[in-house]
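Quick review question:
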């Protein structure tokens, strides 16, 4: 004979307790899942808005690449090569260059950006604009003359011919974009190597917080330096490194308002090839999600110094041995080893 009602036996109490715990655990689990669903949906909407902003506000380069017959063969690697160009103007001349036509537009900044297949680093190789090179169909001339002769496609063809490697994407950034990006990040701290004055701003040795206007003056100045363009290239590398250091921080990456402001502010000053849309950028961003500023390595393509061309121009003498080594490193996805051997710092 039992002293407990049928539903109040010790076994029933245990069963009810277990059911209660299961319901509680299930409700907690559902709550966690719901939280992540809300976060995921929110992130999706945010990402969609960013993508829409980038795609609608950035400019598309009508013809970024030369004809297929004039390009190196494709390689079986997941590495990505991006040509980053800095320009002084978004005027008609740049528009003609982006359309693949000859113009008086010349690129003041050229960087070959290599993202290896393992996505553990970003290598930024600056190329001196006055490097004396062979431009297809035009003989020898300064590197930045390729843009004037045949727009962006001829510049791409010239570089691809030098390094026997394909450029996957092209991005042209108006120098005003540097200013907008700097202001959107609330300023950027740059470790300035030497004192100089430019456009009314004084730059002192040591770390200095630069506003957008100051950053623009910093990356453009060359006349204040004995080695001219060499120091300007170094300063541009310093600025981009500092910019990426500021961007690749939790304070920025976890701040949707700041990221949204950055995309909105900078997109109008960027021109990209048609394949470099928000989806492609997003895919690269996912692959590079663990990269931090210490993983970004910048260096300048080695040269043989300053010289004079047969027609009396002051030029930068190319280093064919170094170019051959870079070409091999790009083909084998070992640019990091070349950069290290060349004494490049992160």
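Suggested answer, residue by residue:
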């Amino acid at each position: 004979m039992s002293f407990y009602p049928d539903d109040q036996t010790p076994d029933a109490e245990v069963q009810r307790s277990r059911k209660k715990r299961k319901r509680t655990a299930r409700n907690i689990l559902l709550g966690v899942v719901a939280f992540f669903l809300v976060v995921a949906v929110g992130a999706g909407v945010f990402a969609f808005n960013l993508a829409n902003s980038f795609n609608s506000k950035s400019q598309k380069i009508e013809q970024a690449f030369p004809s297929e017959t004039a390009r190196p063969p494709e390689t079986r690697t997941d590495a990505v090569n991006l040509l980053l160009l800095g320009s002084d103007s978004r005027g008609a001349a740049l528009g003609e260059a982006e359309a693949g036509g000859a113009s008086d537009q010349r690129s003041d900044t050229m960087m070959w950006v290599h993202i290896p297949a393992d996505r553990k680093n970003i290598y930024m190789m600056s190329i001196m604009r006055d490097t004396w090179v062979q431009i297809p169909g035009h003989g020898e001339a300064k590197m930045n003359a390729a843009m004037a002769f045949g727009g962006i496609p001829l510049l791409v063809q010239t570089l691809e011919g030098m390094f026997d490697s394909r450029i996957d994407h092209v991005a042209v950034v108006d120098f005003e974009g540097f200013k907008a990006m700097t202001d959107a990040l609330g300023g950027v701290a740059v470790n300035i190597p030497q004192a100089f004055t430019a456009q009314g701003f004084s730059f002192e040795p040591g770390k200095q917080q630069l506003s957008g206007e100051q950053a623009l003056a910093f990356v453009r100045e060359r006349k204040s330096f004995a080695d001219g363009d060499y120091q300007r290239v170094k300063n541009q590398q310093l600025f981009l490194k500092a910019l990426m250091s500021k961007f690749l921080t939790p304070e920025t990456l976890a701040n949707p308002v700041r990221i949204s402001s950055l995309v909105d502010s900078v997109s109008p000053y960027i021109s990209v090839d048609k394949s470099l849309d928000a989806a492609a950028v997003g895919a690269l961003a996912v692959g590079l999600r663990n990269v931090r500023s210490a993983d970004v390595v910048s260096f300048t393509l080695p040269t043989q110094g300053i010289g004079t061309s047969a027609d009396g121009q002051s030029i930068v003498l190319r280093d064919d041995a170094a170019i051959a080594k870079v070409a091999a490193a790009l083909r084998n996805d070992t640019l990091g080893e070349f950069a290290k051997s060349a004494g490049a710092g992160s």
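Why it works: The first strand starts at residue 59 and ends at 61. Residues 1-7, 21-27, 34-43 have pLDDT under 50 and may be disordered.
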